[in-house]
Write a structure and sequence with these properties.
Chain B: It is found in: Cell membrane. Chain B: Pfam families: BPD_transp_1. Chain B: This is Phosphonate transport system permease protein. The complex is a heterodimer of chains A (271) and B (271). By secondary structure, chain A is mostly helical. A two-stranded antiparallel sheet of chain A has the order 1-2. Chain A is flat. Chain B has 271 residues and is mainly alpha-helical. Classes of the chains: A mainly alpha (271), B mainly alpha (271).
Chain lengths: 271, 271
């Protein structure tokens, strides 16, 4: 226990002198790094624009209100496309994520040395790249449109779904699997009757959760040309049609809220 | 589940219990889903000729991963990457600092009702608005550059961290906090000794996770002019320089993996 001698009495302290020095230097280093980062940001900022920002914000606000309500008639198809991108993307991703998850889980992988690292690499690389970047890439490859959005969402979701799913597979109750094995079941029968029923609720939960996230992401995919309501948003921004922009933002907000509500309801019913 | 006697089921074959118990609801869900899928497939327009043409380019991109070109655009990559990291660090620090008081305010067992409503409102707005949409608006207001990206990421961090922190505080053990209060502690002391030790490990874990997310998001903010590696990546795609794009993607994946590994170590140490 570190103590401090002071006028003959011992006073309790939380840390020794060495420890508190190390901590102090740690904080100093942290603050120095932050200040350095701030300097870089500040150096590449046009401060005149920043001081002018309240006026600009006010200007945009007056231009954007009231929203152009009758523009909503043109938004039906883009919303439908957005919904399709999210839903079809999620379905494709789930089909691809299930085998990857089974290959990545320690208790079901055929080979922990060769196949598991490959599955983990697929999970990490698809997860760490944002769907907008996937969309950008796919547009360069297969051309702009809804299809590129669907594939982008699908690729991006594989890693997320597979990661959550393989964690669920690793957490299953092993006694049930053993019971099925003891009846003489084949490998696929063990899978179907021992493992799948245990992870089915987790699977449904993951599917709905990811669908909710995908609705959010597919609303902005159009910014790079991959279909959906983002196309309208970027078109309106390009011609500075602020009343349309504000209407689209309201529509996106409502869509996000509905999808979040649906996802919460379904997950509440399952779990 | 209704109770069944063993004698009733003897002699009958066993069938898997269905996932959705109500038969009407089950069939309605299946029929509705199939109908939706058909409608979705019919409205998606895929130009298969264009897709086929793109396959060569897609293959070229996959091949580019085997020979990524770090050198010819290194100065652009480096400045973009540095800007991304700088934005991530600064936004994480500021976002975490702001989200702590808001998280305290959004916890119903600590905050009085008016403060609770205000803080929950801030959290809801920040969570409902996508990073990229916030970035578009902030670029319009503050001008191009990393300042807009920094503000976007800080704002997004607040919504994420405050919500989870507030949920953690609401789920904390009341007894410990009451014991501190009973000793005559002031409000700050109560928070500091009764609440903070209980939520600290999770706060550190979530902060690390958020730094990871912030870096991933900073990679796309450049698409709308908010600074970071995204602008470089976009240019590389536009010029069909797949080897440079592959190099950038490999760098992003590498940094995300390193951050995940680091946060794993730190989370294991605090818990």
């Amino acid at each position: 226990m570190p103590v401090l001698e002071q006028e003959g009495t011992q006073i309790w302290r939380r840390r020794t002198t060495g420890q508190s020095l190390v901590r102090w230097f740690g904080w100093l280093l942290g603050v120095a790094v932050f200040v350095y980062c701030w300097q870089i940001i500040s150096a590449s900022t046009t401060w005149f624009f920043v001081w002018d920002a309240p006026r600009i914000a006010n200007d945009i606000w007056t231009r954007a209100t009231p929203p152009k309500w009758d523009y909503i008639t043109q938004l039906g198809r883009p919303i439908w496309d957005t919904l399709n991108i999210a839903t079809l993307g999620t379905i494709i991703a789930l089909f691809l994520a299930v085998p990857v998850a089974f290959l990545a889980a320690r208790n079901t992988t055929p080979s922990a040395v060769f196949i598991r690292p490959v599955a983990l690499l697929i999970i990490v690389s698809t997860r760490s790249i944002n769907s907008l970047i996937w969309a950008l890439l796919l547009i360069a490859i297969i051309g702009p449109g809804v299809f590129a959005g669907v594939i982008a969402i699908a690729i991006r979701s594989i890693g997320f779904c597979a990661k959550l799913l393989y964690e669920a597979i690793e957490e299953i109750d092993h006694t049930q699997v053993e019971a099925i094995t003891a009846t003489g079941a084949s490998r696929w029968q063990i899978m179907a009757y021992g493992i799948v029923p245990q992870i089915l609720p987790a699977f449904a939960g993951i599917a709905v959760f990811r669908w909710d996230i995908n609705i959010r992401e597919s609303t902005v995919l159009g910014l790079v040309g991959a279909g959906g309501i983002g196309l309208q948003l970027s078109a309106s921004l390009n011609v500075l049609a602020w009343p349309q922009v504000s209407l689209i933002l309201i529509v996106i907000l409502i869509a996000v809220m509905i999808s979040e509500w649906v996802s919460a309801k379904v997950r509440g019913a399952i779990i | 589940m209704s109770h069944t006697e063993l004698d009733d089921v003897l002699g009958k074959g066993w069938r898997k219990p269905p996932f959705v118990k109500n038969a009407m609801l089950r069939w309605a869900l299946i029929v509705g889903f199939v109908a939706y899928l058909i409608a979705a497939f019919l409205t998606i327009e895929v130009d298969w000729g264009r897709v086929y043409e793109g396959l060569d380019r897609g293959w070229a991109f996959v091949l580019a991963f085997t020979s990524p070109d770090f050198i010819s655009r290194w100065s652009d990559i480096w400045s973009g990457l540095l800007e991304s990291i700088v934005m991530t660090v600064a936004a994480s620090v500021v976002g975490i600092l702001i989200s702590i008081p808001i998280g305290l305010g959004a916890a119903r067992n600590i905050a009085p009702l008016p403060i609770y409503v205000i803080c929950r409102g801030i959290v809801a707005i920040s969570r409902a608005l996508q990073e990229i949409i916030v970035a578009i608006l902030l670029v319009a207001i503050f001008g191009f550059g990393p300042l807009a990206g920094f503000l976007t990421l800080s704002f997004a961090t607040i919504g994420f961290l405050s919500k989870l922190l507030a949920e953690d505080i609401e789920a904390m053990d009341k007894v410990q906090a009451e014991a501190i209060k009973a000793s005559g502690a002031r409000w700050m002391q109560w928070i500091n000794y009764g609440v903070q030790p209980q939520v600290m490990p999770r706060l550190v874990g979530l902060s690390m996770y958020r730094i990871d997310i912030n870096f991933r998001e900073s990679a796309i903010l450049g698409l709308v002019g908010a600074g970071g590696i995204g602008a470089t990546l976009n240019t590389a795609f536009d010029r069909y320089e797949y080897d440079t794009a592959a190099a950038i993607l490999i760098l992003i994946i590498g940094i995300v993996m390193a951050l995940e590994y680091l946060s794993g170590i730190i989370r294991a140490r605090v818990q």
